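Extended Data, panel c. Modelled sequence:
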Amino acid sequence: MALTVKQERGMAVVMALLLVALAASAASLVLWQQSLWWHQVESDRQRAQMRLWLDAEISWAQSRLKDSPVVAHSQPWAQALAAIEAGYLLRANLQDLQGRLNLNALAGAGGVIDLQQLTYYRGLLQQLALPASLADSLIRWRGLRFPQTAGEPVLEPLPLRHLARWESLQQVPGYSTEVLARLEPYASLLADEINTVNLNTAPLLLLQVMLPEVPPGRLSSVVAQRDEHYFRDAMDFKQRLNHPLEDVARLTTRSSFFCCGARYAIVRNSLASAP
């Protein structure tokens, strides 16, 4: 009988120890979850502060661009923005969308293809080693048609599609994520009627496509000057180039459409979750 009592007491002690261990584990779990929640809240607060800072910087840049007769990368708006807050790094910069080829401008009046814009786009695809069929695929998807020659029957216009967001290009056959990544530095999606490209912000490769009659070395040398002395207008560019140009009607030094590229990163060890 004494042995049984001792056994019972021993089991009671073991059970008590197990309950204490379980309670300690539960308390630790609650504390860990609270700590994790707190760090998440702090992380969200820090990112919100950085977004407010970014909005303020963008508003400042917009004020500098408003009614500006010339837009160039050497101006303050084009400088990269950066801020570090509690171990997070935010980089952001404004990008001039009129320094790229507007793919929506393939559509002329009445859905008739703008042949000059199509020539530029095909040349750009060739320079980027992308299939020429991408241009035809986009034309068909949008419902565009080639200009009719005299004597041809008048065709009923097709309903036109307009692309508003860059990602929407993935609806067009052939425009994969990889294709869009190659195209994005050189192409944009703006209103159909915007068919000019900013000489001060356009990549050299795009200008070479638009000005095939200019020797590449000469064009590269003149374009390099814009880092210190931007082009005042298309005629200023033509004079510096000192080379006959077929047409400068689609070259400008003004821009009205920009986008903001932002990227978050962790710059040191932190308990907070990665953004």
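Residues 101-184 form one domain. This feature is highlighted in the accompanying rendering.
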